[in-house]
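Dear Dr. L.,

I hope this message finds you well. Following up on our conversation about the binding site, I have prepared a predicted three-dimensional model of the protein together with P-hydroxybenzoic acid. For your records, I am including the exact sequence and ligand specification that went into the calculation, followed by the structure tokens. Please feel free to forward this to your student if that is useful.
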Amino acid sequence: MRTKVCIIGGGPSGLLLSHILDANGIDNVVLERQSKDHVLSRIRAGVLEAGAAQLLRDHGLGERMDREGKAKDGTRILWQDRPDFFIDVKKWTGQQMMAYGQTNITEDLYAARERDCGAVVCDAKDVALHDIETDAPHVTYQKNGQRHRVHCRFIAGCDGFHGASRQAIPATHRREYERIYPFGWLGIMVEKPPLDDFIYAYHEDGMAMAAQRNPMLSRYYIQVPLSDTPEDWSDDRFWEALLHRFPVDVAKTIHTGPSIEKSIAPLRSFVSEPMRHGSLFLAGDAGHIVPPTGAKGLNLAISDVYYLQRALVAHFKDANDALLDDYSGTALMRIWAAENISWRLTKLLHVFPDEDPFDQKIRENDYDLLLTSEAAQHALAYEYIGLPYAT
Ligand code: RFL
Ligand code: PHB
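The resulting structure of the complex is given below.
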């Protein structure tokens, strides 16, 4: 098979890139290791920045989002024995965030690829990248016991943190920056009405969070030790811990019930630089990971795709490679800004097992500054909504 861009990974970044390239008449193929059902069964992100929501609208992907999603002015922080705080994105930036689940976005993207007859190969096993330092790379994979080969001009590595693309860059040509946190997030999904707001709650037992998917689907998280497994947490134990970490008046309003999904995600900050090697470009989780505090991962995947698609369009339509050459540097500006705010919110809102009273005093002082300083409130809202896309 021959195509212009071979996209590895059929998650949100790979599918969105495929959709936009196709709309620009740029031939591409998506290779996804899992089945479509498997990809759609993953429960992940739930909050879009205004810029990400607008990008989806601009590419004809906003109709269901605007119908079923919920615009949000900001996010609440509740703190044991201290006043509440609201990250007032609307007040300080004039923008809103959108509560719309990654599962829905991925469904919308698969529907658009199917409608437009986009080439998405699911169950593509043993994907391997070849000759990426040349102008004529190729990708091989196995499907139904047969080996296939895709010749292309560029490869887009959209295959997430554990994919093959980043590993194809020689270790001598990439620099990795990493923080691993000594806890995870235990998340559950429950078919009950959610709270009105997204809420992060700080408590001496650990962070708790309330999120939402639709009027009858709630998502809750609690910080747990890394050694825990979902089996350690019966629904009763989860609800007891969660309700204890929220102030009583809020806990009273939470609708509990049997979980329909329960999983633990470890927390990690990670960036691999540069995001290009020869004809290979990384986008989304393939190049970087943020802890979920701040809800930046999917938003970064979308902004990477914004930068990568415009660079590929300029290459194929205008024979101009300036944006391709700038891709890594431009994308990394936004990525580091998101790494920064996610790391700071993670430090602010979690209990670290190895910390001392000094660390706690600094944490409380950071929170008090937010409560009392308009400058701090403005800065946090600005970072929380994400840097504007560079034009
Ligand atoms: P994905 O979604 O991991 O998709 C990569 C795809 O590549 C496939 N793949 C391969 N295909 C072929 N060959 C290989 N060798 C392959 N290896 C892997 C995989 O099967 C998969 O389909 O990466 P992508 O597209 O870059 O998207 C990134 C986002 O999924 C991720 O950043 C977010 O989910 C992170 N995240 C959140 N982001 C937000 O912006 N807002 C949030 O509210 C938010 N909440 C979250 C989150 C992530 C979480 N977890 C579980 C990690 C909450 C949680 C709990
Ligand atoms: C979610 O909706 O699942 C969600 C929202 C905000 C976060 C993390 C997860 O920071």
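In brief: The radius of gyration is 21 Å.

With kind regards,
A. P.
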